[in-house]
Specification:
- Helix content is 27%, strand content 23%.
- The chain is an alpha/beta fold and 342 residues long.
- A hairpin with a 5-residue loop joins β10 and β11.
Length: 342
C-alpha cells in the first residue's frame, strides 16, 4: 500500500479571511473539527499525474513489475476527462500490456472499500493474478474558497494498493449499502450532462449559513451527512462483525474514512471503540481526499509496522451516494506500506 500526498501545504489560519465569519468563530470551529492544514495539488496536476508518479516509484524501487499487472482499477470522482476512462490513460502512458483490464469506478468517500471489493472479485478470474487498485481525487478545485463548510476539509491525493492471489485460505468479509434517495447530501450540481457548466453556474451565491459557493462547487449538507454517519455506520459494522463471528474487542484497528475529527470521535463514542483503535488524525494534517483517507490513515499510523506485523482491521467508507461499506480482513506483513510526496 502506497499513498501519494501533494507537497503543497495550505494552512487553515492563512485562509480564514476568505470566509464570511469572524476570525474567532473560524478558529473555534477549526479546533473542534480538526482544521489545521491541507495538502492541495498545484494547478494543472491531475489524477493520472499522481497515479503515474506513484506507480513509477514502485517500478523504480522494485516493488512492482509492469508485466505482472493484470488489472488496473481507478476509483475517482475527478477524472482527467469525461471520456476516455482515466485508467486507460494511465495504462497508455505507462505502456502497460494490452490485455490489462482497465476500469474506472465513480465513487467517493466509500471508494477504497468499493475498489477493494471489485479487486477481490477480479481475482476470481483465472487469468487475473495481480490487481492494481488506484484511488485518487483532486477535488480541491471544485470547492469554493469562500465556503467554510467544505473548503477547510478538502485535500488531494492518491493511493495504490496491490491485491494479488494467495495460496493461503484467507477469509475477507465485506458488506455495502447505498441510498440514492439522499444523493443530494453531497453533490456538485453542475458540470455533468444534467446541468452543464456555464457562466451562470460559476456565479457565487450565499447560503443561509453565510457560505458562498456556485453550482460548479461541491455542496455538502453537513447536518444530514453527520446524522447519516452516526445512524448507519455503527449498525453496518455490527452486522459485518456478527456475520464474521468476530468480537469487536478482537479488532485491532477500525481504519475508517476521515470526514473530520469531530465526526470520527463521535462515531467512536457511539460504537464504544477507543480513539487509539479508530485514528482520527488525517484531516488535520492532510485534509479529506475522499476514499483515499482510508489508505492514508493506514500508511500514516501504521507505516513500516505493517511491513512487520499483522493486524485484524475493519475498513469503512461512507458518504457520497449515499454509500456506506465496510470490510474485515487480516492486514500486515506487507512488502511496503509507505507515504510519499508528489
Amino acid at each position: 500500500m502506497l499513498t501519494v500526498i501533494p507537497k503543497n501545504e495550505v494552512q487553515f489560519v492563512d485562509t480564514i479571511d476568505n470566509y464570511n465569519f469572524s476570525k474567532r468563530q473560524s478558529m473555534q470551529l477549526g479546533k473542534i473539527m480538526g482544521y489545521d492544514r491541507q495538502r492541495i495539488v498545484e494547478p494543472g496536476v491531475t489524477v493520472s499525474d499522481l497515479c503515474i508518479f506513484g506507480l513509477n516509484y514502485l517500478f523504480e524501487k522494485g516493488f512492482l513489475e509492469k508485466s505482472d499487472i493484470d488489472a488496473l482499477i481507478l476509483v475517482t470522482e475527478s477524472p482527467d476527462y469525461i471520456l476516455p476512462p482515466t485508467s486507460n490513460v494511465i495504462q497508455g502512458k505507462l505502456n502497460l500490456k494490452h490485455d490489462v483490464f482497465c476500469l474506472d469506478i465513480n465513487q467517493g468517500c466509500a471508494g477504497h472499500v468499493v475498489g477493494m471489493m471489485q479487486a477481490l472479485a477480479l481475482l476470481d478470474q483465472e487469468s487475473i493474478n495481480k490487481v492494481i487498485l488506484l484511488n485518487a481525487d483532486v477535488l480541491s478545485s471544485k470547492t469554493s474558497i469562500k465556503d467554510r463548510n467544505s473548503r477547510p476539509l478538502v485535500g488531494d491525493g492518491a493511493s495504490i494498493t496491490i491485491v494479488e492471489k494467495s495460496a493461503e485460505p484467507n477469509e475477507i468479509f465485506a458488506n455495502s449499502k447505498m441510498d440514492g434517495t439522499r444523493y443530494d447530501a453531497l453533490i456538485i450540481p453542475a458540470g455533468g450532462f444534467k446541468i452543464p457548466s456555464s457562466p451562470d453556474t460559476a456565479v457565487l451565491e450565499e447560503d443561509e449559513n453565510g457560505n458562498l459557493r456556485a453550482l460548479d462547487h461541491l455542496c455538502m449538507k453537513g447536518d444530514a451527512v453527520f446524522n447519516f454517519v452516526q445512524k448507519e455506520v455503527p449498525d453496518m459494522v455490527e452486522s459485518l462483525l456478527q456475520y464474521a463471528n468476530v468480537d469487536k474487542g478482537d479488532v485491532d484497528y477500525f481504519m475508517f474514512h476521515q470526514p473530520n475529527k469531530f465526526m470520527l470521535k463521535k462515531l467512536a463514542d457511539r460504537m464504544d471503540v477507543s480513539y487509539d483503535r479508530m485514528p482520527h488524525n488525517i484531516v488535520e494534517r492532510f485534509g479529506n481526499a475522499n476514499g483515499i483517507t482510508v489508505p492514508t490513515v493506514i500508511t500514516y499510523n501504521l507505516g513500516e509496522e505493517a511491513e512487520k506485523e499483522e493486524y485484524l482491521i475493519c475498513l469503512a467508507g461512507f458518504g457520497v451516494g449515499l454509500t456506506w461499506c465496510s470490510m474485515l480482513l487480516k492486514f500486515g506483513k506487507l512488502d511496503f506500506c509507505r507515504m510519499i510526496e508528489y
